[in-house]
From TrEMBL:
<dbReference type="InterPro" id="IPR014777">
    <property type="entry name" value="4pyrrole_Mease_sub1"/>
</dbReference>
<dbReference type="GO" id="GO:0032259">
    <property type="term" value="P:methylation"/>
</dbReference>
<protein>
    <submittedName>
        <fullName>Precorrin-6y C5,15-methyltransferase (Decarboxylating), CbiE subunit</fullName>
    </submittedName>
</protein>
<dbReference type="GO" id="GO:0008168">
    <property type="term" value="F:methyltransferase activity"/>
</dbReference>
<keyword id="KW-0808">Transferase</keyword>
<dbReference type="InterPro" id="IPR035996">
    <property type="entry name" value="4pyrrol_Methylase_sf"/>
</dbReference>
<keyword id="KW-0489">Methyltransferase</keyword>
Length: 79
């Protein structure tokens, strides 16, 4: 958990639910709330990855009910 919190704290771009962004956003971070428009979100992430580090925060069962499977397909080279 400390490593994850450190990544979140120092990320240039933070993606997550509105609630998680409220809880974890640091001043100066670029944020993108997760909405139902996943293709638009993927475009925004792809654009930001060209010049910034991006941290995506998800909750729930990350193997089943989460953005993880979608993001792994869209961004296979970015762990």
């Amino acid at each position: 958990v400390p490593r994850g919190l450190n990544l979140i704290k120092h990320a240039t771009v933070l993606v997550g639910s509105e609630r998680s962004l409220e809880d974890f956003q640091e001043p100066g971070q670029i944020t993108y709330p997760v909405t139902g428009k996943l293709s638009l979100l993927a475009e925004q992430i792809e654009h930001e990855l060209n010049s910034h580090d991006v941290v995506v925060m998800v909750s729930g069962d990350t193997g089943y009910y989460s953005l993880l499977p979608y993001l792994k397909k869209k961004f296979p080279a970015n762990p």
